[in-house]
DNA sequence: GATCATAGTCGTCTGCCTGACGATAAACAC
DNA sequence: GTGTTTATCGTCAGGCAGACGACTATGATC
């Protein structure tokens, strides 16, 4: 049967990005302000149309670079400096999710170390890192007492799914290192876990666990006191992808 | 900005299904024979276009019902007889994955108990349950010595991803019960794990583990000897979704 | 410079879970 | 009855995690 355009309805396909980082002990996501309807002026996840000749992962990497300047981490290269982890999250295709037309969005999850202020088309006022709880509380009030509008489209759901993916994935993978600079201390890594999970972890047990997991951390030989206190050893992420046994998220 | 069709390239959106079941101690997937080009006569995963007014999950449930007669298991109803588990798997959008046009496929994963012979538009010769190793061995020879053509499109990759999802997910969730009939014995559940993972498990440790995990199994009071040997207690799936601690897949 | 606060690192102990495996129980086939 | 099959209970040793004590090495403060 030859190509018959009437045989299927046309869709627009976009990629949306959940870009997570840890700033000042809290898990933050990148949000951009919409400059046009629908939801003009509201915060949304960054994203855009997939181009005609582009793979989905390429489109996501392109959007990520446009919004943050980050290069996507090539999964075939285990350790790469200053590259964000990028993976496909899920696809959202409710017929009414975009009031203009039928749009299917392939959401991606990116994890990045703490970065300088974001840029959205060079306009800093239209992009920001916001704590995920703030973005997810629908119709509440932000830290400054100002009313908070929920994210545009179904982006609150997408963000929630991305956060949950990140929370569960750092349990059994070494992905938490994607939130850290190329060299980091055990304490810094622990604060990543604490921020992402929103819990306090015992520094001694955490230290024993991560240093005892083969392939997770590789000492670089250096030390730092950038966190104050006694100098701490610096590590790089090791080659291990999966943690066995996993880091257990404390129960409630 | 009004709806501007020139602002984005049009895509076709399909759903493809990885339908898994356990038959005769091996993990099998549903395959259908393609009746038209491209890949005419080759085996492929069942699937089809998403309709204009349909959600992605609805489209997947519709395709599943068309191919197998199964109703999709509503996730909000924890226990439902004879309903298959259905979840979104991943989305595949390589520009060249379909030679005819730009098609983005949202793959879904379905887990079903052992079923009578499948039907594909009523034609049994065009649908079958095949062991996943047989479908995944590219260009090899099947059990009957006949050469095996690889699956159409990128369906081998999709199937491999679905199998890996199932293998890892039964570790930390109660999803293995989706492969079982409404009432089943501990031994039947163990044989599911053994088929999906391709390993042998110790019956005594397995029994201790699953009966000791709260909420996993609920005794129905009945017994059965349908597997031969001493009568075994019958269980239903309990309300628990996540297993804590997880079932550990044996190393190597 | 003594003291304090802050982080980091090493140990210990106890309880739980797992893997290995022995032993018993209840059906069916002959 | 004897053997075979499957189910179920128990035991034991090793490993890992949570709770927590102790000590170390910095910078900050008086």
From TrEMBL, chains A, B:
Protein source organism: Streptomyces griseosporeus
Protein name: NUDIX hydrolase
Protein family per UniProt: Belongs to the Nudix hydrolase family.
Tree of life domain: Bacteria
Gene Ontology MF: a single term: hydrolase activity
Keywords per UniProt: Hydrolase
UniProt feature coiled coil, ranges: none
Boundaries of every Nudix hydrolase domain copy: 1-154
InterPro entries xrefs: Nudix_hydrolase, NUDIX_hydrolase-like_dom_sf, NUDIX_hydrolase_CS, NUDIX_hydrolase_dom, WH-like_DNA-bd_sf, WH_DNA-bd_sf, WHD_NrtR
């Amino acid at each position: 049967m030859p190509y018959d355009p009437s045989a299927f309805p046309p869709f627009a396909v976009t990629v949306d990005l959940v870009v997570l980082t840890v700033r000042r002990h809290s898990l933050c996501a990148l949000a951009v302000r919409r400059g046009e309807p629908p939801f003009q002026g509201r915060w949304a996840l960054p994203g855009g149309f997939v181009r005609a000749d582009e793979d989905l992962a390429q489109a996501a990497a392109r959007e990520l670079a446009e919004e943050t300047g980050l290069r996507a981490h090539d999964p075939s290269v285990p350790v790469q400096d200053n590259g964000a982890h990028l993976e496909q999250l899920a696809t959202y295709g409710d017929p009414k999710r975009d009031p203009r037309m039928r749009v299917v969005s392939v959401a991606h999850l990116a994890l990045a170390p703490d970065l300088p202020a974001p840029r959205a088309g060079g306009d800093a006022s239209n992009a920001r890192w916001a704590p995920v709880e703030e973005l997810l509380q629908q119709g509440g009030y932000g830290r400054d007492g100002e009313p908070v509008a929920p994210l545009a489209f179904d982006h609150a759901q997408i963000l929630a799914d991305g956060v949950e993916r990140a929370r569960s994935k750092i349990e059994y993978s070494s992905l938490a290192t994607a939130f850290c600079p190329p060299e980091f201390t055990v304490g810094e890594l622990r604060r990543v876990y604490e921020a992402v999970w929103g819990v306090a972890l015992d520094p001694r047990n955490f230290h024993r666990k991560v240093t005892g997991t083969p392939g997770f951390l590789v000492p670089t030989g250096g030390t730092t006191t950038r966190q104050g206190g006694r100098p701490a050893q610096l590590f790089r992420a090791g080659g291990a992808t999966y943690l066995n046994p996993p880091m257990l998220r404390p129960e409630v």
